[in-house]
Each structure stands twice: as structure tokens, then as C-alpha cells.
User: Fold this.
Amino acid sequence: MAGLPEYYPDFYSFPPFFTRQPNAASWSSQLAQWRAFVLAYCRAHKLWRLNLVDALASPLFTNKDINRHLPLPTIREVVDDLAATANAEWTSPDKSAAYIYWRTPDDFATQIYTYLDDTAQKGTVLTLLELTDGDDTTSQEWYGMEQPMLERCLAVLVKRGVAQVFSVGDDKGVKVW
Assistant:
């Protein structure tokens, strides 16, 4: 495993890791390992959404050093498991793509609210682009977040009664109080 980032698990170089285990107890353990790895990988790479066909060839599900990859049906099972634990949400009925929540929308909503409070921006209307790509947010975990994902996070703040989202044409903004 020399040269791999620290979030890669030791078992990444173990060929059976890329084969769905038929024993229920073994599969449950393997699934937990995949869940942790997918979340760590997506967090390290700031991946908000996975297209499963594209991800199949990525280092996330393919280890070229040992010539192994996780089959697409098993990847779907892993993402199903992530969805069952509120760490993913399918974005298509055919289960070809999903949002991956390495932090839940609730967690990101709290971070955004705290950031706006700490930077005295409560009461100010900000565009969604300012939140995800602004010069002042480069150090924030949500920097670079895709707009649909950000909208899910802001919906949490709206539901809490501490924000309002505005739309003007194609542009959107948010005001937090």
C-alpha cells in the first residue's frame, strides 16, 4: 500500500475486498468497510455525486495494482447501503447516480449557518455561487459543492426557520437570520 493516501484502507490491496462475499456476516463486515472507504474517498476528493458507471473505472472501485474492481451490481449494493444510513441519495430511478453525503445536509447546514454567523453575514443576501465558490469560502468544507446539493443543505435551514432562499431568474440567493 505504499504511496496510497492515508484514507485508503489496508484491505484495498486484498483481492477478496473486490469480490462480494457470499456469507451474510462477511458481507456485512465488507459492506461496512466499503461504506467507510467511499465516504473517506469522497470527502478527500470533494465528490458530491457519483455516476456509478464512471466511478467503476476510478480508483475508488478499481485497484489496477492487483487488477481488481468491484462489479457494478455490488457498487449499487454499497450505495444502497449508504442510502439506508442517510449517507447517500439516489438521483435517478435507474440507480445510475447518487449524491454521497460524507457529511449530511443537516451537518453542512449547521456549518453554513455557523460560518454566516461567525462572519457577521446574517441578514445579508448571498448568492449560492458566493457560498460555494466565493473567495471567502475557500477554506470551508462546502467550497465547490454542486448547487443541487447546496440547495438540499439550505432547505434544512429553511425548515429550521432561520433562512429564506430567493430566486431571480436563473440566479438564487439565500438570507439567514
Notes: Strands lie at 49-51, 62-63, 68-69, 88-90, 97-100, 125-127, 163-168, 171-176. The two ends are 48 Å apart (CA to CA). Residues 24-45 form the longest helix (22 residues).
